[in-house]
Amino acid sequence: MRKVSQLLLIYLLFTLLTAAGCTLVPTAVPNPSPSATNTPLPSPTTPPTKTPPPQTSATPTLAPTPDPLALLPVQPRIETADDGQRVYFGDAYKQLPEADIVDEIIVPELIIIHTDGQTANLPRDWGTESTYHGLGEWYSVHFAVSQYDILQMLPMYPDGVLHGSGAAPQYNDQGEWVTYNNRSIHIEMSGHNFNALIEGWANPEMTEAIEKTTDKTTDLVVSLLWFYHIDPANVFGHYQVGRGKADPGNLYFEQYFLPQLQKKWEAFQQSLQP
Predict the structure, then answer these.
(1) Where are the alpha helices (DSSP H) in the chain?
(2) Does the predicted model carry a pTM greater than 0.85?
(3) Which residue(s) pair with 187 in the sheet?
(4) Residue 265, SS3 per DSSP
């Protein structure tokens, strides 16, 4: 009954307000503010991890191996002949007469340095042609060297050289009969009295001739040492293996020639390093 009375009262009130021109406006119910409990926060986005590219080990660049033949101070030329491959060193080849030659191929173990004793010529005229003709029919050597050129006078091969006769056989200090020719390369330098360079009495012309001849000869010896696998300790002056011989001069050979040869040999060995 009470509920009916309340409804009737509301109806009468609504009728009176409508008649008076009033409109009931419904009260807006505010939306609840978002809170940490009812509005979830977005999850922080973890940036994608970049995978680095696989590391590849760098292949080291190898230095090119030097060509020893191209580095030799006197480069050999290898040519095909009727008797096989021949090797030529120096500026020219002029073979000695057959009478001077022992027909035997040897494997060289030593290099013997001579001077040819050109006493009749001035130092500026010391030349390989005089060396060639001065040997006659008694001696044969592989090279003549002057301040101007290198002349090869006997056949040489990749694995051996023709037998020369630049040092006479003899008895050694132990009484043994020895010969060096069957295992030696012989080189004649044009000129004489090379000790004058050390003793201080060589004039400028003689000094120049000796120095230039030595320069060419040591270049040749370095090339022969490497090509024929000869121990550098096996380079001798004629006076060391020939009884009664003095060439090329002990002072010159030990104080000038050998130090220059050693310096060039070491420089060549260093040039072979990659």
Answers:
(1) 2-19, 68-71, 128-134, 196-199, 204-227, 238-241, 250-252, 258-271
(2) no
(3) 113, 143
(4) helix
Six token digits for residue 166: 């630049």
Separation of alpha carbons 73 and 56, rounded Å: 43
Cβ atoms of residues 72 and 87 within 8 Å: no
- Specify whether the CB–CB gap between 68 and 272 falls below 8 A: yes
The ranges assigned to domains in the chain are 85-262
Most confident of 6-20, 37-51, 61-75, 199-213: 199-213
**Is 85-262 assigned to CATH 1.10.1060.10?**
no
Q: What are phi and psi of 35, to 5 degrees?
A: -130, 170
CB-based contact 223:265 (threshold 8 Å) = no
* pLDDT score of 207: 98
Q: How far is CA 107 from the centre of its chain?
A: 26
Distance CA 257, CA 86 (A): 29
Q: How do strand 143-145 and strand 84-88 relate by DSSP bridges? A: unpaired
Tens digit of each residue's pLDDT (9 = 90 or more) over 208-259: 999 999 999 999 999 999 999 999 999 999 999 998 999 999 999 999 999 9
What span, in angstroms and rounded, lies between the C-alpha atoms of 243 and 175? 13
What's the 3-state SS for 79-113? EEECCEEEEECCCEECCCCHHHCEEEEECCCEEEE
The pLDDT of residue 21 is above 70: no
Say yes or no to pLDDT of 105 above 90. Answer: yes
